[in-house]
Amino acid sequence: MRHIRLLAATGTAVAALSLTACDGGTGTKDEGASRPTVAETGASRTAEGGATTGGGKDSGNGDSTGGSTAGSTADGTPVARTRAPGARPNASAGHSTKGTSTGGSVVLCNGANTSVTAQPLNRPLNHLLLTVKNTGGKTCELPYYPVLRFDEMQWVPQADRDTQPQAVVSLAPGASAYAAALLSAADGSGTGGTTGHKLTVAFQGYTPNSSGGPSATPALPAKGVSYDSSLKVTYWQQDLDSIDSW
Questions:
Q1: How far is Cα 227 from Cα 152, in angstroms, rounded to an integer?
Q2: Are 129 and 182 within 8 A, CB to CB?
Q3: CA-to-CA distance for 226 and 126, rounded, in angstroms?
Q4: First to last CA, the chain
């Protein structure tokens, strides 16, 4: 079991990941999806309204290793668990960036073995909620934070280090995890405001700024979403409570 330590991301390295990640999902425009708040969505611990993308399943079977365990709610819905700090994935286990493994049963989450949704929120203002659901047959892990790219954007949003969890977020099959994006500053301090109509979500590997495999392209509202230079994201989170007040 391992404790994730974030290395400072360089604009060039992360940009390369964002621009070269292979798209792994499709989506249709969400013409009229409601925009829940984080608090409203948190009541059910899911935020999967609207179209999803990248729902391919990984090959092979197996339960989670490395001490990762899956829990469930009263109605049997799986919930995400974090791998305990200090436990590294076994290098000999053959972790794959394609959603499969050669010798281990824990893989990286990416566009090939998850579905991804992106929901603009009314509260907090100017926020976008990302939900990733494990649609594969194996436990998958989400290192670090999502790398976002709207349309042909040539810069990379940075992550808020204050949201870094103590351990890698681990998803049992059927479980979900979350991240949020601040699209624009409420005080208007951001510059270069524009509207994005296509969103690409890239996943990172166990090494900072490395590719975690195929990316996803969750659907956005038909009118797009507005963002500016203050755009930033949170780290992946096990539950919504961690970013409810972000």
A1: 14
A2: no
A3: 8
A4: 28
Helices marked H in 102-176 — which ranges? none
Contact present, 45 and 79 (Cβ < 8 Å): yes
Alpha-carbon gap, residue 76 to 144, rounded angstroms: 28
Tens-place pLDDT, residues 178-205: 999 999 988 888 899 999 999 999 999 9
Q: Cα Rg for the chain, rounded, in angstroms?
A: 17
Beta bridge partners of 178: 131, 237
Helix, strand, or coil (residue 163): helix
Which secondary structure element, helix H or strand E, spans residue 15, and what is its range? helix 11-20
Whole-prediction pTM = 0.63
Q: What is the pLDDT of residues 69-121, one digit of tens each?
A: 344 444 554 545 545 433 444 333 333 444 444 346 899 999 999 999 999 99
* pLDDT tens figures, 116-170: 999 999 888 899 999 999 999 999 999 999 999 999 999 999 999 999 999 999 9
8 A C-beta contact, residue 114 and residue 135: yes
Query: Coil, helix or strand for 17?
Result: helix
Contact 235, 45 (CB under 8 A): no
Q: Please state whether beta strands 139-142 and 106-108 pair in parallel, antiparallel, or not at all (unpaired).
A: parallel
Task: Show the 3-state SS of 29-45.
Answer: CECCCCCCCHHHHHCCC
